[in-house]
Amino acid sequence: QVQLQESGPGLVKPSQTLSLTCTVSGGSISSGGYYWSWIRQHPGKGLEWIGYIYYSGSTYYNPSLKSRVTISVDTSKNQFSLKLSSVTAADTAVYYCAREPLDIVATYFDYWGQGTLVTVSS
Amino acid sequence: EIVMTQSPATLSVSPGERATLSCRASQSVSSNLAWYQQKPGQAPRLLIYGASTRATGIPARFSGSGSGTEFTLTISSLQSEDFAVYYCQQYNNWPLTFGPGTKVDIK
Questions:
Q1: A40 and A117 Cβ atoms separated by less than 8 Å
Q2: Burial of A53 (0-12, 13-18, 19+ CB in 10 A)
Q3: Shortest CA gap B106–chain A (Å)
Q4: How far apart are the CA of B101 and the nearest CA of chain A, in angstroms?
Q5: What residues form DSSP beta bridges with A34?
Q6: Which GO terms describe its cellular component (chain B) (predicted)?
Q7: Which pLDDT does position A113 carry in this prediction?
Q8: Structural domains counted in chain B
Q9: Nearest-CA residue of chain A relative to B53?
């Protein structure tokens, strides 16, 4: 059974960089076959896909966040990470990492982490 | 970007009754549509993908239908554990986008 677990600071100051890591257990990121994504949910709101990374390092980001997002992977630790720069209060959200089965195009998210709340405040 | 809309925003249903949730895409997404269930304080759970294929372990009372721009999630007989928020998600085009959700609550 694949499990994903987010970790990182729960409080980030405005203009700083939000950094989160997702640790995957029960399966290897480097085995391929999946995209590894970040998704966020503003308090009481819907879901916003941030971007994905493949084990090879190839990425694709939501154009709405592309200028501020970097997703990286560390296959030796079976982890992937999110960095979001120049944060504002509008970036306050629950951040989820999720697995996306690989297909010709995008797919759906079959496993999710429990989510971690990140608050942007001074 | 494909915009997803869902209706109604809230659906009040009695246990044992049927619930029908709608999802509409701003342009055709073929059958590249998934449904998720989210309970308070939990991550979304995949229910349906490919518009109509139940994910592993999902009870048969959940069914999905539709293609193109109009989709439906039906819960045939609501159980107490089904009261939650339901989201649709298209994966036909980047960026992946979700609907705003339908809350199913107890009547």
A1: no
A2: buried
A3: 19
A4: 7
A5: A101
A6: extracellular region; immunoglobulin complex; plasma membrane
A7: 98
A8: 1
A9: A108
Instruction: Give the residue numbers spanning the domain of B102.
Output: 4-106
- Domain CATH number, residue B17: 2.60.40.10
CA–CA min distance B55, chain A (Å): 8
pLDDT of residue A103: 79
**How many CB atoms neighbour CB B51 within 10 A?**
22
Count Cβ atoms below 10 Å from residue A94 Cβ, excluding itself. 19
Secondary structure of chain B in HEC code, one letter for each residue: CCCEEEECCEEEECCCCCEEEEEEECCCCCCCEEEEEECCCCCCEEEEECCCEECCCCCCCEEEEEECCEEEEEECCCCHHHCCEEEEEECCCCCCEECCCEEEEEC
Interface test with A, best of B96, B98, B102 (most A CBs within 10 A): B96
Contact list in A for residue B1 (CB cut-off 8 A) is 63
Local confidence pLDDT in tens for the 122 residues of chain A = 999 999 999 999 999 999 999 999 999 999 989 999 999 999 989 999 999 999 999 999 999 999 999 999 999 999 999 999 999 999 999 999 999 998 777 789 999 999 999 999 99
CB-CB under 8 Å, B42 with A105: no
pLDDT value of residue A16: 98
DSSP A24: E
